[in-house]
Every structure is written in C-alpha cells, then in structure tokens.
Amino acid sequence: MSKQTYRVCFCFQRRFRLAVSEAPEDIKKLFEQYSENGIMTIDGLQRFLVEVQKEDKATREDAQKIIDSVKHFHRKGVNLEAFFKYLFGDINPPLASLGVHHDMSAPLSHYFIYTGHNSYLTGNQLSSECSDVPIINALKRGVRVIELDIWPNSTKDDVDVLHGGTLTTPVELIKCLRSIKEYAFIASEYPVVITLEDHLTPKLQAKVAEMVTQTFGEILFSPGPECFKEFPCPESLKRRIIISTKPPKEYLEAKEVKDKEDDSQRGKASDEEAWGNEVPDLKGSHVANYKNDFDEEDEEDTDDGEKSQHSLAPEYKHLIGILAGKPKGGFDAWLRVDPDKVTRLSMSEQKFEKAVVTHGKQIVRFTRQNVLRVYPKSTRFDSSNYNPLIGWMHGVQMVAFNMQGHGRSLWLMHGMFKANGGCGYVKKPDFLLNSMEVFDPKIKLPVKTTLKVTVYMGEGWYYDFHHTHFDAYSPPDFYTRVGIAGVPADSVMKKTKILEDNWLPSWNEVFEFPLTVPELALLRIEVHEYDKSEKDDFGGQTCLPISELRSGIRAVPLYSRKGEKYNSVKLLMHFEFI
Fold first, then answer.
1. Which of 99, 102, 160, 244 could disulfide-pair with 421, CB 3.0 to 4.6 Å?
2. Beta strand pairing call for 241-245 and 320-323
3. What is the 8-class DSSP label of residue 129?
4. Helix/strand number for the chain, H first, E second
5. Would you give the DSSP letter of residue 276?
6. pLDDT for residue 247
7. What is the spatial distance between Cα 550 and Cα 95, in angstroms, rounded to a whole number?
8. Where in the cell is it found (predicted)?
C-alpha cells in the first residue's frame, strides 16, 4: 500500500502515495497522559476507561481483556499502536451491549414497534414480484409487524397475497405463513403481529382461519375478552403470533377508489440521489393536497364495528387478537378514546400529516392506550418512505415502512430499532404516556443535554471498494455529514471539510448538538465523496439512538445504502454529553 497508480489516458499515469493509518494527535496525547515510558499499564487503561470512556464500572479485569484482545507482546500493558488498534476495533462499538433492557411488562400500546408495509413486495408498488423472501429478510432484521394483502386467487378457490389493482405477481398465502413461522423468532423472541388487509368472501376467510391455525398451532395468540379492554404486554406474548385485521366490508369493494387517483401524481419522477432523498423537514409542518388521497384501509373506511362483524366467518373472527377499525366521522371520531375498549387505527401518511396539524394532542392522548398505524401514501410507487419522526413524536406505535425502500428515512428506522437489544420493541418515553400533561412536539423545550461529537478519521474504503470506484483518476475526496434526527427543534445536519485524494481521511473536527428531547433523537452519520462534475458518491452511513450512545472514543462501523454492514469501513469518533 505504498503507492497507487491511476491511468489518465493511453500514455499518462498518475501515482499517489498511500498513507498508513496513524493515531490522531488527540489520541496520542491521551495515550501519553495515561501511560508511562511508552506503555499503558492495566491500571492506566482502567483509569482511561473510567475517565474518558465514562465506563464507571470498568475493572482491572476489563482492562486486561482489552490488552489480551489486541494480542500485543506486552502482557501487562499496551503501546500506542495497540491502544489505537483497540480504539478502532470491533471491541469498542458506539452502542452499549445491554440486550433487552426496557420494561417489557407494559401494554403493547406503550411501545414503538418495528413495522413493515406491504411486506411481501420485492420492489416497487405497481409491478414488482410478490414473494416470501422480503418477509424473511424483514424478520431476520427484527421487524415485528408483517402486512399481508389477501385476495382470492384466479380460480377463486384459494388465497393469494398481492397488491390489489396493480401488476404485481401474486404469492400463495400459505407460503408466506410458513415462512413467517420459520423465521419469526430468529432475531427476537418478542411477538410478531400479522396485519391482514382482507378482500375475501366468508368462505375464503374460513379457509384462511384453517391455514393460520394449522400453520401456527400453539404459538397463535388466542385473545380473551380482557384483551379488548387493554392490550397484553410483550413479555407475556413471547414467541407468539398475533393476527390483526378489521372486519371487512362488501367482498372486493376495496381498491376501486385507486383508479380515481390524481394522474398528475402518477407521473412524478423520483429525484432520489445515490443515497436517497434528504429526510423531509418537520419544522414547517406542511399539509399536502388531500383531495385525491386514497387510503388503502380508508376506502369509505368507516364501520360500525359490531354490525360489520356479522359478515365474518366465525372461525376467522376468533383469530383476531388486535381488532382494527375506524368509526364513522372524521378525526374527532377516529381519535376518541373509549375507556372500555382498545383498538388499532390505520391512517395514511397524508391523512396523518393533516391530523397532526389540527389534532396533535388528541393523537398523543389516543396512542397511550390504543395502537395507531401510519403507512406510506399511495403515490410512493417507488416504495420510498417518509420521515418516521412525525409518527414517533406523536406516540405512533406502528410507523409502517417499505423495507425495500432504501434511503435516509429507512436508515432512521434501522437506527431507532437498534435500541433495546434490537428486539423490535422500544419503550416509548414517559412523556408520551403521561396522563397529567400531553406532550406537544411543536413547543420548543429547554435544552436537556448537549452532545459533543468529534469526527477524527475514517478507514476501510480501500479494502471494501475498487480503487476507481469513487474516482477513475485519483483517490477519493471524502467528507462526513453528521447531525440529529428528532423533534423539529433538535433536527440539524452539519458537515466536515472535504479532504482530497485520501483513502484515510483525518478530519479532526468538533460539532455540538443541543438536545431538547434526547429520548427521541437519533445521531445521523453519512460519508460522501465529493465530485465536481456529478452527484457526490455514497461512502457509508449509520444512525444511532442517542439513548444508547456510549460516551468516549468509539469505532463506528458504517453500512451500505441497503443497510448492510461493510467489512472494513468505519469512523473513529468521540462522543461527550456536556
């Protein structure tokens, strides 16, 4: 790795000297502070862990494990090279390894739940294949809510899963159910909810009931009457499958409204950049044009609850563990809290954006005991997503996302559910459950804490990318974007300077982020390669929940646009709460 050659034309080549990864000056100074005669002993390393890394309970045994892990010939200490290897190694991640540590004994309505939308689609919403593969991938990632649209097959004697009214190719329901059973608890033992969007006759509903009961057997949750007064807790539902649907209307009435969509919206081209559009800003809460908004569960979606249940096959009705529905009327009726009954309400992204402007506090109040699901608007044909914070800061449990819609919004979703051991359930902050005072995210609150972030350096692109991936004629020109996704007052993005022609960029820049609601904040990190003539290239990203961010100097692994971890690419960063 001493020199690298780039061919500029047939007879001319450029050669660049390749730097060797070296500890930044701040790291060298810290090493000197905690070492003697060029060696940091066990006691010196323990003091470093307590004082700099803020690991208050660090012991000499912890320090010894680190020394052993870097395989340095000094058994009783480390030199600068080994110390730097520890700091930039996998043994020093940015998030605490706490496992599932939230209280899991509260009702389901007290949690944000990792939720998919049209979970069976492999690509866009109009013409992609339906398959069990994206369902399997979602479950492996820890997604806990799987949505299936169920329709009669072409011969009307069996049940398929597909996006109705489109050119998507169907997949058999039984195949999806078997895959859910096999992979449901690979990533998490906490319950999986299957939301069914039902377009079946009572006869086919009875067939679905038979499929579901035979496939899942004893792990299928059978609700008692008490479950409709208060939702059970995730702890009591470990390794259980829950069915959630609403009493259906007239057979196949459902998606006809889709034909009336505004044609002007259909032709919109996606301007998604190489790494995805910037997450929409929530500071100036906008209200879109709702005149032609079609809701997949709305289509005249008012029902009388009990009255419409008479059309249900009895075997099917008894499967429903979380009853969904929407009473007659507008937002006031939908968001009315019934002290004797809990329900799941669904709302499109557009309807929800409108609701938060006029009924923000009612939404927060409603989601204390009821479940609200928000899903992408129907014009997102490319399977893109919206800013999930608009849902979370109003207490929405099921912020439903297209898990194949890679981009910044989905990165935030991945980041949120890295919390609580990646189990797919994150306990809502107390202020969203407080019955004495209703949280209003539009009100700017006092700063609770300030996160100070130092971006030292990065490495690994040389190993994970071809040497002409970023630039055909020279090494890459990297810069880092770092910021916060949270309530409007906290959300911001900043960036480092651009370092030219360097596979080992060393920025050494400091940023400060005042946080008014750290409980909902995510740290956003992106690396890009500057390109004068075209769009900047993507060099990696991650999102980290502030609530579980470890203070101190940490090695931050970066992920691809699809959320897959790179083998070698990472940043060295310092996090301090001041």
1. 99
2. parallel
3. B
4. 15, 24
5. -
6. 57
7. 5
8. Cell membrane
Q: Is 117 a catalytic residue?
A: yes
Reduced to 3 states, what is the DSSP secondary structure of residue 173?
helix
Residue in 332, 377, 336, 380 with CA at minimum distance from that of residue 358: 332
- Whether 318 sits among the annotated catalytic residues: the reply is no
Calpha distance 492→281 (Å, rounded): 9
Contact between 511 and 493 (Cβ < 8 Å): no
Catalytic-role residue among 72, 117, 199, 574: 117
Mean pLDDT by 10 residues, the chain (578 residues): 57 60 90 92 95 94 90 76 93 92 96 96 90 96 96 92 89 96 97 93 91 95 78 95 74 39 37 52 46 40 45 77 85 89 92 92 93 92 91 96 91 96 96 86 91 96 86 86 94 95 93 96 95 87 96 96 94 96
| The predicted structure's pLDDT at residue 311 | 60
Same fold? 106-246+314-430, 443-577: no
How is residue 19 annotated by DSSP?
P
Closest C-alpha among 244, 214, 217 to residue 231: 244
Is 443-577 CATH 3.40.50.2000?
no
Compute CA distances 329 → 302, 303, 326, 334, 336, whole Å: 7, 10, 9, 7, 11
- Choosing from 72, 102, 110, 163, the catalytic residue is 163
- Strand-pair category, 565-577 with 425-427: unpaired
What is the CATH number that goes with domain 106-246+314-430? 3.20.20.190
In the block, which residue shows the tokens 């496939």? Answer: 215
List alpha helices for 404-503, DSSP H. 408-416, 461-464
Q: What CA–CA distance (Å, rounded) separates 445 from 18?
A: 48
Contact by Cβ (8 Å): 110, 363: no
Nearest to 80 by CA among 113, 35, 44: 35
Sign of CA dihedral 393, 397, 399, 403: positive
Q: Does domain 1-91 have CATH number 1.10.238.10?
A: yes
In whole angstroms, what is the distance from residue 338 CA to residue 366 CA? 9
Write out pLDDT tens, residues 379-415.
Answer: 898 898 899 999 999 999 999 999 998 899 999 999 9
Q: Which SS3 state, helix, strand or coil, does residue 159 take?
A: strand
Domains of the chain, residue spans: 1-91, 106-246+314-430, 443-577
Q: How far apart (Å, rounded) are the C-alpha atoms in residues 27 and 35?
A: 12
The DSSP 8-state label assigned to residue 324 in this structure reads: B
Alpha carbons within 13 A on the beta-carbon side of 226:
3
CA distance 116 to 147: 6
User: What does the alpha-carbon distance between residue 551 and residue 546 come to, in Å, rounded to a whole number?
Assistant: 10
Residue in the block written with tokens 């010196």: 44
Using an 8 Å Cβ cutoff, are 205 and 312 in contact? yes
